[in-house]
Amino acid sequence: MATYIYQYPDWPDFTWDQPDIALLCSEVRHLQGKITGSMSMLGFAGRQEAVLSALTTDVVKSSEIEGEKLDTEQVRSSIASRLGINTAGLPAPDRHAEGMVDMLLDATRNHNEELSHERLFAWHAALFPTAYSGMHKIETGKYRSGEMLIVSGAMGREKIHYEAPAAVRVKQEMNLFLDWFNGNSKLDPVLKAAIAHFWFIIIHPFDDGNGRIARAISDLLLARADGMADRFYSMSGQMMLERKEYYAILQKVQHSSRDISEWLEWFLHCLRSALLSTQSAMEKVMLKSRFWELHEHTRFNPRQRLVINRLLDGFEGRLKTSKWARLAKCSSDTALRDIRDLMEKGILQQDNPGGRSTGYLLGPF
Q1: Residue 196 belongs to what domain range?
Q2: How far apart are CA 77 and CA 99, in angstroms?
Q3: What mean pLDDT do residues 221-241 have?
Q4: pLDDT given for residue 49 in this prediction
Q5: Per the domain annotation, does 294 fall within a domain?
Q6: Among the three residues 271, 289, 307, which one is the final residue of a domain in this structure?
Q7: Are residues 305 and 358 in the same domain?
Q8: Residue-level pLDDT at 158
Q9: pLDDT(355) > 70
Q10: DSSP label at 86?
Q11: Residue 219: CATH number of its domain
Q12: Which end of the chain, N or C, is surrounded by fewer C-beta atoms within 10 Å?
């Protein structure tokens, strides 16, 4: 059986390819700065919407990586209520959604606070309010007392993917981890986020929820790296898109002797992709914010606001009267009146003037 990284005598004295990792880290930091700068140009409402969207994605996708589906609207409702954003029309969240939200908001909003055993126990208890994971009763709010095997396959033909350190070692391992985490390290917090994620996963200190807590720890350190509690990008969202690679790289590097370069490289590339995706989305958010600032005093009915927002979000296909009627749930006559009113105001224009099939699009602004 292959040796695990924690079984080597130098554990946890990690090493990595300094020049390559430093270059990647620098690129990520540059992108973080650009996004933070873009956010500062948004109005209050735009920033709120961006934060709400990123946090919702983070909670939903972090759970989805583990095979648990949370209701997106319930998560959005839970986060909105905690951030003081209007929740009208949103459903009441269930306690599982609430627990994930509690953990993530504590990690990001209180990112400068020390990470302790007790804080981790509170996160774990929040994730499993019934002390059950599916049909199985688990130990909550404390480290595991049993052994931990990650297995797959039918009973009797299980394949062992990972065997975590023995339960008797967990407290000692976590003491070491937390001393490093809370110490005055000169490590860039982005790099520290990658190392902390891997280190925590290797210890696997809880009965369940280790992946979700590891991602919350990464979010805490990324919030420190950004120097702000507001989250504008979702690392968990990108990890979900690269879920296969995420598990594959963890499984590969868990057998490394000390060198975790491959994991750090993957983590930083994943973060870079998350930031690039957010940069693209932010351009749309800023465009939307600019439009509504310009038309702050323009009169719109609710149907017009609804369809304009769809256009600003990147509506696919041609907008015709019939599509307007379906989107706004109104008659074709009402849709045509709405459209003509916006054309008179210079907001909409025909996309094929004089053609047989008339469509409409937003005019330049």
Answers
A1: 5-289
A2: 13
A3: 94
A4: 82
A5: no
A6: 289
A7: yes
A8: 78
A9: no
A10: -
A11: 1.10.3290.10
A12: N
